[in-house]
Amino acid sequence: MNVRETSIVKDLSLAPQGRLKIDWAREHMPVLNRIREKFIAEKPLAGQKVAISLHLEAKTANLAEVIRDAGAEVTITGSNPLSTQDDVCAALVESGIQVFAKYNPTPEEYKEHLIRTLETRPDLIIDDGGDLVGILHAERPDLMEQIKGGCEETTTGILRLRALEKSGELKFPMVAVNDAYSKFLFDNRYGTGQSVWDGIMRTTNLVVAGKTVVVVGYGWCGRGVAMRAKGLGARVIVTEVDAIKATEAHMDGFTVMPMMEAAKYGDIFVTVTGNRAVITGDHYPLMKNGAILANAGHFDVEIDKVSLEEQAVSKRIVRKDIEEFVMQDGRKIYLLGEGRLVNLVAGDGHPAEIMDMTFALQALCLLYVHDNHEKIGRHVIDVPYHLDEQVARYKLESLGVHIDDLTEDQEEYLASWKV
Questions:
Q1: CATH number of 3-183+350-399
Q2: Where does NAD(+) bind (predicted)?
Q3: Domain 191-345 falls in which CATH fold?
Q4: 3-183+350-399 matches 191-345 in fold
Q5: Burial (Cβ within 10 Å: 0-12, 13-18, ≥19) of residue 277
Q6: Does residue 419 have a pLDDT over 80?
């Protein structure tokens, strides 16, 4: 297959600068590089076709090349229209990976890229937000006959998968990579926490210290966003619907209140819930002049953009990735990145060292599904603990950090009911 002829990318001449980005990421992803060495030697995915839908930037490209080095034929597409980097796509094509992705495609083109990826008839998939799985189950079941299973990257995708499983309609096994300790404790908290503020600060060029930040949702991503906002000198308000998470936010030192109250105080709002319409038309009339809205959830449904446009008398682009909405009373509300993932639309996503752990899990779990799909059955399963711990140990080794091991006596004590 000549991927230069079959791929859909913006401009292959961008490949050299994309290669520089990928190589930089690779230099800072030692765990994945260790797995790469093993994959090159053993070729455990030889003869397999792998379809990937992820945010298509340099760290993701490194994962795709590791899976290729395992012997697989890889096809990749983006999981968000505004997070795809055209130079990275070009570099992947030049490295022998088939790509169907461009920055800011039309909705029709975006859907076509997903379907074209699935029309390669993959054996295994890596999904982000459940787009590939959704198309296979709802629209193109003819393309899933040889799929052994796959992995899911996000909370949003896992919610969709578990709904499919509960209804008895899931047709192949999926591993909930997002729920692994080495993923959510680091990727969701430290990755999202840093990259969201990278995106907001790069885009607005405004100070965070002294401002009031409203974090909508206190899951692992929300914890990270709130923690980093506090570290930057902001006053932080958290809104929640879960009593346990709200109690935790309070005990962590943040102010907790309903969104209708928080709307009056926020200078910057960040949504991280995975749900829809958490900031709505009821909230806009209460907001300060100059309020900034940003979303860090997977889909662009958390901020009600329709109501914002309906209430505004005018809108314009005032900076790259910033839309200004002028309300009837003259107040201005700013929306970042069209309400899409601000850390990827307006930034470069999570740090390479963080994605190193997540993508190492993806690579190992994909191999696990390949080897165990019949035993797993049509279920959504957690990442096997030994793989989770393996990634953590590789990470510690790359940092030069050493830990203790249990003695035989300690293991026997923990395994016994006797004191």
A1: 3.40.50.1480
A2: 154-156, 188, 217-224, 240, 275, 296-298, 343, 350
A3: Rossmann fold (3.40.50)
A4: yes
A5: middle
A6: no
